[in-house]
Amino acid sequence: MRKLILKTDVPRHWLFMLSGLLWSIAGSILLWRALGWLADVPINSEIISESLGTILGILFFFSLFKKIARKNRSRIASLPKRVAIYKFTSQRSAIIIAGMIAMGIILRSSAFPKHLLAVLYTAMGTTLWFGSFLFYKSWLNVLYRQGQSK
């Protein structure tokens, strides 16, 4: 009987794409939830909440999150040419992500007003979307350099 061996190693540059996709997906989920919570509020309140969340998200990205994304990109770039696919994030980052997911679950199931929670979700969703493009840029840069060397 043959054993099925699952190989999880991929070329390192695919970790940039995977990170970008996961940040985009997580950001999209947060933005979608925020929009859903705001569907029942007056349009003026919805516009104010979404605008405030977007502005906060952009500020958070440029003041803190951009540095985090760059640090993660540098970490990925320092990995061997072929690496396990689950190395797209560090152990420390995985713990932070798990904590953020747990906090989101707790907040969603609490009595915290959803229209206010929508501002936080919009801010974090916007931040993740902006961060995802740094990873896409790194992935495209690697592909471009590979094309130049041929």
Which labels suit this protein?
mainly alpha; globular; 150 residues; 4 helices; two-stranded antiparallel sheet
Would you write up a description of this structure?
The chain is mainly α. Helix content is 76%, strand content 4%. It has one domain. The chain is built from four helices and two strands, in the order βααβαα. The chain has a two-stranded antiparallel ribbon. Helix 2 packs parallel to helix 4.
String of helices and strands: EHHEHH
> Stretches where pLDDT falls below 50 for ≥5 residues?
none
Q: What composes the largest sheet?
A: 2 strands, antiparallel
The coarse overall form would be globular
Side-by-side strand order of the widest sheet:
1-2
Mean pLDDT, nearest integer?
Answer: 90
Terminus-to-terminus distance: 42 Å
Q: What's the β-strand tally?
A: 2
Beta fraction: under 5%
Structural class: mainly alpha
